[in-house]
Amino acid sequence: MRQINRVAVLGAGVMGATIAAHLANAGLDVLLLDMVPKELSNEEQAAGLSLESPQVRNRIAGAGLKGLLKMKPAPLYLKEYASQIEVGNFDDDMARLKDCDWIIEVVIEHLPIKKMLFEKLVPHLAPGAILSTNTSGLSVNDMAEVLPQEVRKNFLITHFFNPPRYMRLLEIVPCRETDPAVVEGLADFISRRLGKGIVYAKDTPNFIANRIGVYAIYKGIEHMVEMGMTVEEV
Q: Residue 39 gets which letter from DSSP?
């Protein structure tokens, strides 16, 4: 497995941004990308910006980065670590993925959208780069269908839990073609560098933690109904 020094995070929502923050905490250089806005905000219009202005095109990823400085509990060890995170967008900056050793997809939990993004990024992957998804329950083998064979051997699920800085658990789910050496090497890196406790899961809906969590919630509701309890009492 190639050495990991630079990581791209695709998706700058709460989960993507906080994963980027924890990677920066570990001393890694991070590229944080998201969509290009389709409309100008009122502030951008007042400033005379256009949809072609870099500030506008990188607005979503930029907002994710700025949000890290205000979150509680703090996702960054030190606010200065935010300087290790660069922002961009899916339309202008895919070519920058060639300089990344590990690419983590963290977009909406919708299989067609994830597949579309994978197809878009594949031409820009460096040889041997690791590609992972942070899905919390979608099938890794379904996602792998759109990937070339040489990419599948470096593809797997790395499911971080929220908030990434504080939640030690991380689930790893390989696809059928994932190289076992990649699984072992990435797990060792995540454990040593990111401080995570690794749980290996099979490609079943919601993997391990969320399956247990959903069952616990369901049983709690079931007992509440059986006992005639109100929401306030629970």
A: S
* Rounded Cα distance, 204 and 2, in Å: 29
SS3 of 218, please? helix
Q: Are 124 and 99 in contact (CB under 8 A)?
A: no
- Asked if 7 contacts 154 with a C-beta cutoff of 8 angstroms, the reply is no
Cα–Cα distance, 60 to 35 (Å, whole number): 7
Distance between CA 99 and CA 60 in Å, rounded? Answer: 22
Tokens representing residue 178 in the block: 């994932």
CA terminus-to-terminus distance, the chain: 49
**pLDDT values of the chain reduced to their tens digit, one per residue, 234 residues:** 789 999 999 999 999 999 999 999 999 999 999 999 999 999 999 999 999 999 999 999 999 999 999 999 999 999 999 999 999 999 999 999 999 999 999 999 999 999 999 999 999 999 999 999 999 999 999 999 999 999 999 999 999 999 999 999 999 999 999 999 999 999 999 999 999 999 999 999 888 888 888 888 888 888 888 889 888 877
Contacts of 183 by beta carbon, 8 Å cutoff, 6+ apart: 156, 172, 174, 200
Q: Strands (DSSP E) along the chain, which ranges? A: 6-10, 29-34, 85-89, 102-105, 130-133, 155-160, 169-174, 197-200
Is pTM, for the whole model, over 0.90?
Answer: yes
Q: Specify the CATH number for 6-203; select among 3.30.230.70, 3.40.50.2300, 3.40.50.720, 3.10.580.10.
A: 3.40.50.720
- Domain boundaries along the sequence of the chain: 6-203, 207-234
